[in-house]
Each structure stands twice: as structure tokens, then as C-alpha cells.
Amino acid sequence: MTTQIIFIVWRESVEALLVIGILNAWIGHDPAYAPGRRYLWGGVLAGLAAAVALGFGLLEASAVLSGPGLEYFQTGLVFLAGVLIVQMVFWMRRHGRTLKRNLEQGLGEAARDGRWWTISLLALIAVAREGSETVVFLYGMFAAGPAIGTWSVFGGLAVGIALAALTYGILQLGGRVLSWRLFFKVTEVLLLLLACGLFTTGVGNLVSLGLIPYMDPLWDTTWLLDDASRFGGVIASLTGYRALPEPATVGTWIVYWSLVAMVFRRQTRRSNAMAVQTS
């Protein structure tokens, strides 16, 4: 569980730092844009406040609900976390290459019109989006996995943020150590595996709730890797692996990866078509 916390916070924080870094660099390249810096950090603080408010809202909802209602709520958030992860991966694949150019074009127009609040809005949206996704991801993982201590949670958050700052610094070296392209390629695979794990857990919850009938496992690979062991549990939570998968679990894997492959092919065809049009 702590490994998942570190990974999610690390990845989401790097994405937020990417947008904030672009905004800050744009402000710094011209002294006339200096007034925009306080709007930038105001937007960052507002985005953090929005994410914290969402976190408290989810905790309050959990406190109010009980019994089957709480189980349905938590299972729904497990699925929502998986959907958001997949959406994030494909959104970055589609917009990552033009993100910097699009942001700077919008900032240039805002500066000419004196609309400094646009910087606050962009920072707020970036931080609130990544922060809110992190909150939902973490809540979904807590609902899907075993209980974890408070210090482990805060420790994972601290390590994830520290690693994000370190990674961002390395990425800013210009690809001499680690490129943005490689970073997103590797982490998108890990995120898709993590989303598969969440969907698998969600379907398992539906079986436990009686919404999907239980059937005998199709095979047994506990001799190879037991998902009840410490190491196997980490692999299971990060990838959706099950040593004794039921038909519903195997069906989840097939449907999930088929849909992911279909969207990948569609995005690739669209990118190739756009490349041909611009060449």
C-alpha cells in the first residue's frame, strides 16, 4: 500500500510541477511579467485547498455511511479511481507534446490584455486536478486494500513529494539523465497496470456483495506467486494479479486490456493522420 501511495503522489506531483514550472519560467523570462508571480502562487494555494476540501468531503461521506451503503460507496470510488488513471494516461498522450506551447500562447494573450488572473486560474486548475485525482486514487486504494497506519500514509506522501521534486529537477536537465518522453512512457505503463489492479479489486468487491455470482477459480498459480504473501500482495495491488482468478476476474482483465489496446490504436491512427496533414 505504501508503495502505491508513493507512486501515485510522485507521478501526480510531477505533472503538477510540470505545469507550474512552465508558468513560472514564462513569468521569469520577461521582467514585465513579474506581477503574474503572485497570481501563480495564489492559484497553487487555491488548488491545494480544493484538493484538501475534497479529501475531507470523502472522509465525511465515509463517516456518515455504514454497512452495505459504505461498501457500495467505496467500491464506486475504486472504479472511479481506475477510470481517472486511464483517462489521465490517454490525456497526457494526446496533449503532452503541445502542452507547453498551448500554455505559453494563452499566457501571452492574457498578458497583453492584462488578465493576470488567467495565471491563477491555470495554476488552480492544474493543482486542483492533480490533487483531486490523487485524493480519489488514494481513497480508492485505501478502500481496495488492507488498513494502513497514519504514519505510513504521511510517510508515503512525504516520500512521493520529495521524489517528485527530485525527478522534476532531473528532467529539467534537458534529457541528459532522464527525458520527459521516457518518464511518461514508463509511468503510463505502470499506471495502466495499477488501474487494472483497481478494476480487478472493484469486480472482486462486486462478487463479495453478491452482485456478480461467485464461480470456482480457473487456475492456481500460488506455487509460482501467492498473492497473499507480502511480495505477491504488492504485485497484486500494483497489477491486478490473482493466483486464484475467478471467471469474473479473468473477464475483467480481457475487457480492460482490450479496451486499452483499442484506444491506443485509435490515438496512434489519429496522431499519424495529423502528422501527415502537417507535413
TrEMBL record:
It comes from Roseibium aggregatum. Keywords: Membrane, Transmembrane, Transmembrane helix. The keyword Transmembrane applies. The keyword Transmembrane applies. It comes from the Bacteria. This is FTR1 family iron permease. It is found in: Membrane. GO terms for cellular component: high-affinity iron permease complex. It is a multi-pass membrane protein. Belongs to the oxidase-dependent Fe transporter (OFeT) (TC 9.A.10.1) family. It holds the Pfam family FTR1. GO terms for molecular function: ferrous iron transmembrane transporter activity. InterPro entries: FTR1/Fip1/EfeU. The chain crosses the membrane at residues 6-27, 39-59, 71-91, 121-142, 148-171, 191-215, 247-264.
